[in-house]
Structure formats: C-alpha cells, structure tokens
Amino acid sequence: MITSELPVLQDSTNEPGQAEAVSLGVNELEDTGEVKGKKKRGRPGRPPTANKKPRKTPVDKPQSGAPRGRKPNGVAQQNGEGDAITLFEVVRLGKSAMQSVVDDWIESYKHDRDIALLDLINFFIQCSGCKGTVRIEMFRNMQNAEIIRKMTEEFDEDSGDYPLTMPGPQWKKFRYNFCEFIGVLIRQCQYSIIYDEYMMDTVISLLTGLSDSQVRAFRHTSTLAAMKLMTALVNVALNLSIHQDNTQRQYEAERNKIVGKRANEKLELLLQKRKELQENQDEIENMMNSIFKGIFVHRYRDAIAEIRAICIEEIGVWMKMYSDAFLNDSYLKYVGWTLHDRQGEVRLKCLKALQNLYTNRELFPKLELFTNRFKDRIVSMTLDKEYDVAVEAIRLVTLILQGSEDALSNEDCENVYHLVYSAHRPVAVAAGEFLHRKLFSRHDPQAEEALAKRRGRNSPNGNLIRMLVLFFLESELHEHAAYLVDSLWDSSQELLKDWECMTELLLEEPVQGEEALSDRQESALIELMVCTIRQAAEAHPPVGRGTGKRVLTAKERKTQIDDRNKLTEHFIMALPMLLSKYQADAEKVANLLQIPTFFDLDVYSAGRMEKHLDALLKQIRFVVEKHTETEVLEACSKTYSILCSEEYTIMNRVDIARSQLIDEMVDRFSHSVEDLLQEGEEADDDDIYNVLSTLKRLTAFHNAHDLTRWDLFGNCYRLLKTGIEQGSMPEQIAVQALQCSHYSILWQLVKITEGSPTKDDLVALRRVVKSFLAVCQQCLSNVNTPVKEQAFMLLCDLLMIFSHQLTNGGREALQPLVFNPDAQLQNELLSFVLDHVFIDQDDESQSMEGDEEDEANKIEALHKRRNLLAAFSKLIIYDIVDMPAAADIFKHYMKYYNDYGDIIKETLSKTRQTDKIQCAKTLILSLQQLFNELIQDQGPNLDRTSSHVSGIKELARRFALTFGLDQIKTREAVATLHKDGIEFAFKYQNPKGAEYPPPNLAFLEVLSEFSSKLLRQDKKTVHSYLEKFLTEQMMERREDVWLPLISYRNSLLTGGDEDRLSVTSGGASSKASSVRSKKGRPPLHKKRIDAEESVEGSWLMRNDTIQTPGALQTPQLTSTVLRENPRQAAEHMPDQDSEPGSESDYVHNPQMQMSWLSQQKLEEVNRKDRTGMSYMKARSGGVRQTVRGLMEDDAEPIFEDVMMSSRGQLEDMTEEFEDTMVIDLPPSRNRRERAELRPDFFDSAAMIEDDSGFTMPMF
C-alpha cells in the first residue's frame, strides 16, 4: 500500500535489516527498454527481499548527460544565457509548451529517476512559495515529515502570499500552467512510468504529507496538485475501462467462432492483453484510493474555503467524467453535505458541479436518491444571501424540473415563482427561466403544430398569455408588472412581444365555448402589455433593477429599432380602438395612454397614417372630457406634449387640436367662475362641480404646456381672494387654484429667462409673484389642512426659486424678482412646521393597529410630513430663512429620530458647512429652548435625575458628536457655544440673593457634554471666562444645587493642566500649577508666550461687562415665536467676520487659526503691563494672562482630546458627519515637548481633501 512517507534511498552499505525498514520499496528499471516490456505489478511498495540485488545510489551512478544542466544534488542551475531552468520557473514563465516540458522531464527520469523525482519534489515545494530546496542528502536520509518540517522553517514569513493567492494576470496564468503540467505529466506517463511502483508512490506520498501540513501554502498547493492528479488518473482509468471492454468484445467474438476458424494465438494475446489491462486498472484504482482517502476525505472540510472549493469542484469533474465509478451515493454525499458550507464560494462550486450532472438526462436515474435527499436544501438555497449562489441554485432547480416533472412539489415551485419579483436582476431572470419552463413550455408537439397555423387569440400564445395574466393576479406578494416582464424577457420574448394576440384578446368577443376575460384580468393584461412595450422600446430593465442604462451593442440596438417600428405600426391602428372600448375606465385608460410615448412618430407621416392620428386625438379628447382623475388627465397632457414635439411633422395638426380643446376648457372655466362668484354663498353643487372639474383639467395641462396666453392666473387669483375674504371656498377648488397659479408663474419665469425681458415684464411678474405669495401666506391660516399644506409647499418652492440664487449664472438682470421672506413670514412657516410635522400619533397608531389600509394611510401621512419638513429645511440650508429658526427643528432630533432623523442630521451638516459659528449658536439655542420649557413645567428646582433632564443631556451629547474629531476646524465654533452657554446659565440672578444659585445654573451640566470638544488651551480660556461670572462664595459652595457648576468646572479643568485642579483651590491652584510647570522645564521663546497670551485671552474680553450680549436672544418657546433677524441683530453683536475662509489659512497663519479669538489682540498687549494688580483683578487681567502664557510650557498641544464624551458608546460614531470625520492621532511625547502653537500638529498626510471640501479619512 502507499504510505505517506517519501522513499529513502538505500545505500550500498545498508544491511538487510535496514532495507526492511524502508517505507517504500524502490524497483529500478534494468534499462529503458524494459519500460515497455513486462513490469512487476500488483502490490506496490513491497519491501525488497534479501536476495534482491540492491540498486546503485545516485552517487554510484555516472553523472554524464544529465539533462537541462542540473547538478547531481538536485539543485537547478542556469545555462550560459541565464535562462531559468527549474521546473517551477519554466512553468511560471509559461514560454514553453507543457508537452515539451513534460517530455524533457521524462527523458531526465529515464536517465536518472531519483534526480528527476527530486526535481519534481522541489517543483511542488517552490510552487507553494517556499524558498527552501530539497537536496539529495535530505532525500536519502530524511523521512517525509522531517523534510516538510525543514521546508516549513525556510518559508518567507514577511508575506502571507504564495503563488496560488498572488494577484495579477501572471499568477492566474501560473495556476493554469500548474494544473496543465500535472495533467500532461500523467497523460504522457500513462503507458509506462506510472506503473513502475516508484514515481507515483513518491509523488502521492509527498502530496499526502504536504496536504496535512499546518502551513496553508503547503496545504493549498498540494491539495490542488493532488486533485488535478486524481482527475488525470480518472481519465486514465476511463481509457483503461474502454480498452478492457473492447478487448473483452474481441475475445468473445473470437472465442465464439467455430473451432476451425478460431485463432488460438490471437485468443492468447487477447487474454494476455486483458490481464495486463486489469493489472493496470488495479494499480490506478490503488492510486486513486490513496489520493481520495489520504487527501480528499480530509481536505474537503478544510478550514480554508478555497481548499474545500477545489475538492468539490474536482469531485464533480470525476463524477461527470467517469460516472460508472464515481456517480454513486458514496461520492455524492460529500457534495450534498457541502451544500451546507458556511462560505458562498464553496456552495457555489457544489451547485455548479451538480449542474454538470443534471444536464445529462441519462444520469438522472443515478441521481434520484440524491435528489430526494437534498432537494429541500437545494430549493432553500434559491434564497441564499449570496446572490451568485441563489442564481445557480435556481438554475439547478430548473435542470431538475427539466429532467423530471414530478421531482418538485407545488410548494417547491412556488418558492421559486415569487423570485421573479426580486430586485436583483440575475436572480429574477433565473426565476423567470424556471417559470417559463414550468408554465409556458409546450410539451405536446402535435397540438403545437396544429395551433401554430392559427393567429391572434387562437394562436399558441393565446392560452399562454391568459396563463401569464392569471399568474400575475394570483401572485399575492407583489404587483409589479414591470418586474415580472423583465424577469421573463430573456426566456419568453416571443410570447411577450405578441402584441397582436394581446390586442385581440382585449378587443374581440370570445368565441363560443371560450371564457371571456374578467374586468380584473383585462386591467392586468393592459398593464402587462404596456410593460412589454416599454421594455421593447427602451431596451433596459425597469427602475430598481440594474445599476443604470448600459450601452447597447449593435445587435441589441437593431433589435430595439425593429421592435419599436413593429409596435408603432401595430398600435397606431389598435390604440384608438382600445381607447374607444375602455374610455370609461380610468385605470385602463391611464395605462393605455402611456403607449404613444414609445411610438416612432415619424411613422404617422411616412406611412400616411394621419387618419389614425386624428382618431387618436379624437379619443384623447373624449377621455379629457369624460374624466377628472388626476392620473388620467396628466397622462392625456403628457401624450399631447409628446405629439406636439417640434421635430415631427405632425406637430401642427396636434397643436390645432390641443388649442381647440384648451379654448373650450378656458371658455367654460371663465363662465363657470363668473357664475360661482356671482352666486357667492348661494352657489349649488353643480356650479362648484363645473369650476372644479374644468380647473382640474386646466391644471393638469398647465403642468406640461405653456398656457400663459390664456391668462389663467387672473381667474385663479380671484377664486383665492374670494375664498380668503368670504371663507367659503371649497378646499379642492382652493388647492387646484393654488397649483394652477403656481404653474402660471413658473411658465412666465421660463419665458423671461429664455428671452430678453423688459423692465415692464419684470415689474409685472414681480407684482404677480408678490400677490401670490401674500395669498399663500394668508392660506396658512386656512381651516382646511389640504389648503394649508398646499400653500406651505408652494411658498417654500417659490421662495427657493425667487431667492438670491436666481441671479447666479449671469442673470443679474433678474435681481428685481428676488424675494427675501420677512420675519413674520419666516415665523409663520416655522409655526406651520411645528404644528403639522412634529405631532404625536401614539394614540392614533394604537387604534389603527392591525388594519392594513390604515397602516398604508399612516405611511402616506408620514411621507407627506417628511416632505413638509424637507421643504422648510431647504430654506434654512440655502440661507433663505435665518439659521436660528433651525433651533426649533434641531431640538426634536432625539424625540422624532425614527421619522425625521435623517432630514435633521443632513440639515445640521449642511448648515455647519455654511457657517460653523452660527450653527453652533443655533445648537446651543435649541438646548436653551428645551431647558426653558423644562423650567416652565417643573419650576426652578429641577430634578437632575429626571428623564427630561437626561433627555436634554443626551441630545447635547449627540450634538457634540456631530462636531467630529477634527478639533481644529471646529475650535472657534465650540468655544462660541461654551461662551453662549455660560452667559445663558448666569443670565438671570436669583431673586432670593447672590448666595443662591442662578435659575439657569443647571444648564451647565448640559453644557459639560461639549467640554470634550475643546482643545486643552481653550478649556483654560473657557474656564477663565466662566470665572468672570463667579464670586468667591459661589466657588466655595458644595451643596447639591451647585453640583452643575462643580461638574462643569471639573470638565474644563480635566486635561487643562498636568494636575487635576480641586474646585476649592480656584485661581491659586492654577497659579501654583504654573509655577511648578515653569520649574519643570526651561521656558520657551518669548515669542511663543506673547502669541499664546494674545490667543487665549482675547475672545473672552470681547465684552468688558458680564452682561450677556444679544447675539441670539432666547425667544419665548411657542411655535409662533418672533425672532430677531440676524441681519438686524448683527448691529448689536461683536464682529464675526473672522470666520476662516480656508484650511490653508489655518496651516500657514497661527493667528488665523484663532482669528475670532484675537479680535482684541491690541487690548491684550496693553493689559500685559498691569502685573501689579491684586489677585482678584488679575484673574481677569493681564497678570493672569501672562501667567497663563507661562503655563503653556506645560500644556498639551492642539491634539489633546480626540475621544468622545465619557458616556459615549461605540455606535455613536455613526453620528459623525462626513465633513468632520477624520482621525488624527495625538503627537508623540517628543513632539509635544518641542511643540509650539503652530500648524505642525495638523498632520495633512492623514487627510484627503476632496473637491467638495469634505475631509475624509484615509482608511
């Protein structure tokens, strides 16, 4: 039997006892001529007998004529030209044909098989990426395990890559060459060398040992080699089996002859040949069993997925190649078990291996038991999380269906049916192929031939189309006809393009005995038919499938053109008849009116089919006059728009018909409006219906057509004004009038922007827009919610359109049309959002629970509210509404996170990009509003452990996370936020006296959530500013009501100095700390001290008094609060024009980094001379600033606190925005020691600045 050890070369001095210990016997070839003669076969590897002549060792053999320049020790050398001559290099380069490479090796083997085998062993070792080489001494004296252990020690540990895993086309080619080399080697040796009981035993023993190694490279490479070796041996065994069968037939034929004609010599030769073939077959089976049991059985469940995949792929090849031997349950079970593999790559190989088997119908009987055992698993894999695996599983189920209709139950088929609606197109297409095979394949040739002669509804496709409609209707999971058509498009195009049959099913009456289509079936058929037309005309999948429109090939483009011509020619005549039959059904008409959008309209004039155009226009007119549904009217309007395209010659004919229709509608509308306005409150339902129906039609047409010459705005405005004055206008009329007026304004703007407007034109349009905005603003207080919502959306849209951006792109002449909303309008818009968007529906949701219709209504209502919020948020983002208005939006971030979290987060991100400081002020204002609301509800004595306080703190923590990790960019904004927060906390004095805490002191606990976003030196500056508001009594208090102040001071002092400061020590402790740090190291240059003095203290001296500046006054917390316009408030604010304009300003100018902090630099320089003041004065004067300048010697540089707040969780990293997400590591200690407040700490190598200005992480 074959063992896992390499043969040990027997020295001439070995004693017989030593020879018996050799694991593999070595049978030498007496000469090269004996290879083709008789050979000893049977039990390979038997030990040599005592009387057998020992073979010569390689040392005893002559070395002359060694091919390809190899040294006797097996180490390859190079020829004079420097060409690589090792087997590995020859195979890697792939410049020589494998046939010639193998022939060279065989010649070497015939000359000296040990040296040749050593070459082959080193080939496998080097293909594994090992740098070591097996030498002849190792081959002679060491066992297999010892050699592998030695080679393991010589691996290159710097890289985990090896040839089979290296990327690039060169190594892909190497893998192919490697596999080809093994196959050619066995093919060339199949008649002699593989039976010499030496070469194959050595190779199999080596590969078995390597495949059991702990080294992945050895295991992977040897498993691939062994599996390819096994495949080659299976091919040899198959050839031997064929030769045996042929020999047996020849023998039987000869033996059955009569005695006189029988050739006994031929019989003996055939017997000898049969015996020799049988012996060869036994030896091949012995080798295959060794590989299968020694390698495959262990490696098919290897820890590495690639190795498992190799095993499964090759066993599939064996079963297909030699099914008589391998296609049985003993081997199929390995594939079945591996269907449950945790890696998609392995499952995929299993399915492809089975597909190769199920493709052959003759193999189905042998697969029957396997199918019954593993069918459920295969069907379940159609829902695999890996799309590639799911696709192949569906294809395998389709093959099983083709082989046996009874193999799959109805439940199995239904599991595949619904996948035609999958959003992943390959899965859907595979499921469509299954559906086609199951439902639409005809299995009766005679009936098919009889039906093929019929056309229309009686054609072969007639019943199939009915079946498709039934399938579509019975599919309870989905109603997406476009997805169903796309899934079947590749497999059932002939059926789906049979529009003649579809129209006949719709138009013709059923013949006797034929069941007519129901109304529901007709609607479904029309929907499917329109989807097939769209698919044929556009030649790309519907929205939601695929990554976008791909470029069509020439063949696909030609097919598209042919299909479009075909459908145009057919439906030009059929569509008017279909509209005539179904003109009363809104759903069917809306679908049918989509068909002209896919026409080639040149066919009308080229084919002289104007009469069919007139018939179509006539039917469309009937539809417009009969229906008031928005969907139908918009479809008619769109059809007119397409038919009126100037590029087609039919434009004039269609334009005349359209103008006549609109003239009639406008005339009817004018009269009905007059009647309605005259009758006033006495108007009856008919008058209202006449106005509403005509207005709906005109609004739908005004959306796609320029109707300004009919001046619809006048009558609509009259209706709106009357409704506002009298308060009795029906809500639907008001909604339609608002929409129609909006379209009219937009069309007037289009005419002005495309032409050369006069001043009168601009004045006229401005007057119209101003009057309409006033009407919309008045409608915000309407009692009817639909009217209010419509007015709000139109206000937001028009304010966006007529904003300051209207003059961009060289349109400065349109400046008179720019509208800026006043404070009253801004507050009314904000009030509407607060009253109609941020509403609780808990009670509603409980009452509606379980009702699907109500659930759908709730979802629709949520979408409407999201649209309202998004419309208002855009006004904030584009600086149309003042940013402080966003405070009322931001404060709802946590409470309504599930409904509007994404919108609020994006608004916050965009506003920060616009103005970081103003955004920070808005954030703190939102927290102040929530705090004031809490004070109003609970009084000044807040329960700091209550859920309300925790909710405000959690919101502050979320806001702090949005500042990101780049503290340089947000430095000024965070400092401003703290400044405003401190001022708010001390804004009011306690009426009981100075010894009592201020009413808003608890707000400092909320503010402490932002302390981690301050730089170390800024913490000191903020702390200094805080002390301006404190008295000695406040600093010494320890009662619970003062805990917010203690907590906030600790958050500022932590990290502000090397030592943590106690609360009671106050400024004296800070002073002592500065003295210690000064003694700890030599002082830095005076220049740095001056710079830091001016930087740190300047911002807190922007106001000489303790009183709170009026930059962002906290408004009364009602939804209709009036706020100061920032443009007006700017007169009372310190100058904030120092917001840095670019990152380069920070990098190259240290003062620009803190430009807003240094606005009073001159005052700071003057204050440095006041060093003789008392300590209490020095706390806010120049001496303290000088001391702080000295303290900077011991301060951490810019990158101090890059962590989130102490309570932050890992998932909160998702709160960061893209414009601030960047990770900067703190500098090393040596770097900190030589650090000065310069941009050196800003490591630009860790950043990528994209075109949009966002700072993105490198990893």
Please, could you describe this protein's structure?
- The protein has 1259 residues and is an all-alpha fold.
- It contains 56 helices and 2 strands.
- Helix 20 packs across helix 24.
- Among the domains are: 216 residues, no CATH class; 95 residues, no CATH class; 118 residues; 115 residues, no CATH class.
- Strand 1 and strand 2 form a beta hairpin.
- The longest helix has 40 residues.
- It is found in: Nucleus; Chromosome; Chromosome, Centromere.
- Keywords: Cell cycle, Cell division, Chromosome, Chromosome partition, Coiled coil, Nucleus.
Offer a quick outline of the entry.
The chain is mostly helical and 1259 residues long. The protein contains 56 helices and two strands. Strands 1-2 form a two-stranded antiparallel sheet.
